[in-house]
Inverse folding.
């Protein structure tokens, strides 16, 4: 990706407009400088011609020469006789040789730019040679004035340069504001798209008024969202209908297998029946998970009651005290959250089931209430950890386990009965309750951390969290 693609559209439009405005402003200033310089130079030449003409007329009228010359600080005059000697000159050129070597020419006058010489090093003057007719020969009247510099006047050059800079900055600023205003509907569309997810597929992006390209873009996006919503609803309905309809044949198959096992006490039949029942159990669990996911995706509302998270986790610990793994619970009392008790129970069940499948010998369940200053958890946050002493989960695969039907190779080798839906359902329930479920660093094994907003602010506990150790 090059540097241009890394800049926003507003920045690129502003940069492009600024460069073009600077170039055009500079070109305009140069053209104006050249034009005014040309006008000033023409006016100066005409003035010098007029001065030399006046001087030539007076030389022709007076026999004794010309003494009072109309010179000034920037205008110099010399009168040269036919022999090439300077007869009279203004004060600045008094005692100096003729300022030019060319004569009036056939037209009676001639002009040229003369540099250095009597004017000084690196100085140039516009010199006009005018002929003056006198008895005994033609005299030459030279009149000169310094050439007009390219900047004409320092104050004028500063004004013109400053105006060009102000013009470029003003155009760039206006272009930036216009670009921001033009792309503001795009920002609104983007923000709305960021908030649209599976739980609110009916939302649509705002359509700006008018017939601009952004209007058509927003309309196309809304049409696409409508089609996606229809596809999602059909998919969810199919999953819900299939899951619901599969329950009856599974129950019938289970009844047939159990009746066959009771009618034939042979060991072979019993082994076959137990294998079939185990497969039916797994199939029934998958169907139940699919039905749960379909309800969650459809945004089916559950109960919204205060639930003591510590009490719920403690009940789950007691239910599993006869298992093969040691479960250690450290739960702070009165950690109350708002949610559906059945769904939160399903969340805890899925987390502990996952820990039991991967733990070597021990599972730790820690729960407490923590303070939080954010708006997401105004009354504090309820934290629940489920830690096992198994092989753990690699950092780059911690999000993979929350994808539906995703199972790591270690999980497949250790337990072929999992469906890959338990952890996705747990995270979806946590997010539906306004919380989050993540895998965080642990010294040993995997550490699942559940955070839910507390229902109301409670006082800090006055005693250490209770500890329940079960085997």
């Amino acid at each position: 990706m090059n540097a241009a693609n890394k800049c926003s559209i507003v920045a690129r439009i502003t940069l492009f407009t600024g460069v073009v405005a600077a170039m055009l402003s500079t070109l305009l200033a140069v053209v104006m400088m050249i034009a005014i310089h040309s006008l000033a130079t023409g006016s100066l030449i005409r003035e010098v011609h007029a001065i030399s003409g006046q001087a030539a007329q007076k030389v022709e009228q007076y026999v004794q020469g010309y003494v009072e010359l109309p010179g000034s600080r920037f205008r110099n005059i010399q009168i040269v006789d036919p022999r090439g000697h300077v007869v009279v000159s203004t004060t600045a050129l008094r005692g100096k040789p003729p300022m030019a070597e060319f004569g009036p020419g056939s037209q009676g006058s001639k002009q040229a730019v003369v540099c250095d010489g009597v004017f000084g090093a690196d100085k140039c003057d516009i010199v006009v040679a005018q002929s003056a007719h006198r008895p005994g020969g033609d005299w030459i009247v030279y009149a000169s004035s310094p050439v007009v510099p390219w900047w004409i006047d320092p104050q004028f050059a500063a004004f013109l340069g400053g105006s060009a800079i102000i013009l470029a900055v003003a155009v760039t600023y206006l272009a930036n504001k216009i670009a921001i205003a033009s792309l503001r509907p795009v920002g609104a569309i983007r923000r709305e798209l960021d908030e649209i997810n599976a739980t609110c597929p009916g939302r649509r992006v705002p359509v700006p008024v008018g017939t601009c390209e952004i209007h058509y873009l927003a309309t196309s996006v809304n049409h696409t969202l409508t089609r996606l919503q229809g596809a999602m609803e059909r998919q969810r309905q199919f999953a819900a209908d299939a899951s619901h309809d599969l329950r009856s044949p599974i129950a019938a198959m289970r009844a047939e297998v159990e009746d066959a096992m009771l009618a034939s006490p042979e060991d072979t039949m019993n082994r076959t029946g137990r294998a079939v029942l185990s497969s039916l159990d797994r199939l029934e669990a998958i169907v139940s998970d699919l039905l749960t996911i379909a309800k969650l995706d459809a945004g089916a509302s559950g109960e919204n009651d205060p639930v003591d998270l510590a009490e719920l986790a403690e009940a789950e610990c007691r239910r599993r005290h006869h298992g093969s793994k040691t479960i250690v619970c450290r739960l702070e009392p009165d950690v109350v959250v708002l949610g559906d008790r059945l769904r939160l129970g399903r969340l805890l069940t899925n987390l502990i089931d996952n820990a039991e499948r991967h733990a070597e010998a021990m599972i730790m369940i820690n729960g407490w209430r923590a303070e939080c200053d954010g708006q997401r958890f105004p009354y504090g946050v309820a934290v629940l950890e489920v830690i096992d002493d198994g092989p753990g989960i690699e950092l780059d695969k911690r999000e993979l386990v929350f994808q539906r039907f995703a199972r790591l190779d270690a999980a497949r080798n250790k337990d072929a009965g999992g469906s890959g839906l338990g952890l996705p359902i747990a995270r979806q329930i946590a997010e539906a309750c306004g919380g989050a479920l993540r895998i965080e660093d642990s010294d040993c094994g995997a550490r699942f951390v559940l955070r839910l907003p507390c229902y109301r602010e409670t006082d800090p506990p006055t005693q250490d969290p209770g500890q329940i150790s079960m085997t």
Observations:
- The longest strand covers residues 124-134.
- The CA atoms of residues 439 and 448 lie 5 Å apart.
